[in-house]
Amino acid sequence: MEEKTNYILFAKKPEPGKVKTRLAEGIGVAGAARIYRAFLQDILSSLNRLYHPFAVAYTPADAGRYFARISGGPSALFPQQGRDLGKRMERAFLKQFSLGYDKVILIGSDIPLLSPDILEEAREAVAEHPAVLGPCRDGGYYLIGLRRPMPELFSGILWGGDKVLRDTVSILRRQQCNYRLLPELSDIDRAHDLQELIVEIKSRERTDRFIPAHTWQELSAFGANS
Which residue range forms the structural domain that includes residue 125? Predict the structure, then answer.
């Protein structure tokens, strides 16, 4: 019997002043919200191209109707629940495993270069490894895939710090749990991250490498295509 995989997108409703606050310091709250909305559109587009189930775990709690409208038909929509990011991720994994999925892959929503190919690579990797992580250049991770609930990975971590990946890997090693690292990507938190993203996307033009179309269109408002 083929194993069942589900992806979970952790996402916020792109309301000005409530998303990408550090990015907003450089480009304003309205611009940061527009950029984040473009990130969401690109990641949802990638998920819909996979032909595998995916769920959206959203915040705030009243954002369900918004995500139902933009997400293109996920397998489930549910609000994030928990006192911190770790507890919210732990509960999201438990919810999907309780529904009978054999492999669950959770992804963040501020990684515009997260392509369908990387998402598919994660699915294949978690078939062979109990844990899969997608490293961010700032020391966090943009993706975590598991074959069973591992609540220990979500406690005792300083979320938002630069040692999230390191501390998570340390827990896996202490438990002698085999894991796989995916290609490193950048999350976009500050204005200089946005400039680096522009340079990276420009370098991909006239190649067959993935370009996040909605993000690139939105970046044109900042002179990216000039």
Answer: 5-222
Q: Which of 50, 90, 91 is nearest to 73 (CA)?
A: 50
Distances (CA, A) of 136 to 43, 55, 89, 139: 16, 22, 17, 6
Three-state DSSP state, 88: helix
Helix axes 29-48, 116-126, angle to 10 degrees: 60
Q: Is 25 left (phi over 0), alpha (psi -120 to 50) or beta?
A: alpha
Which residues in 121-181 belong to E strands, given as ranges? 131-135, 141-146, 179-181
Summarize pLDDT for 121-175 with one digit per residue, the tens.
Answer: 999 999 999 999 999 999 999 999 999 999 999 999 999 889 999 999 999 999 9
Looking at residue 142, which CATH number applies to its domain? 3.90.550.10
Average the pLDDT over 66-89 and give the result.
93
Please give the tally of structural domains in the chain. Answer: 1
The rounded distance, in Å, linking the Cα atoms of 159 and 154 is 9
- Average the pLDDT over 95-104 and give the result: 95
Does the pTM surpass 0.85? The reply is yes
C-alpha span between 11 and 110 (Å, rounded)? 9
First to last CA, the chain: 52
C-alpha neighbours within 13 Å on the C-beta side of residue 60: 5
CB of 86 within 8 A of CB of 154? yes
CB 42 within 8 A of CB 34: no
Q: How far apart are CA 155 and CA 166, in angstroms?
A: 14
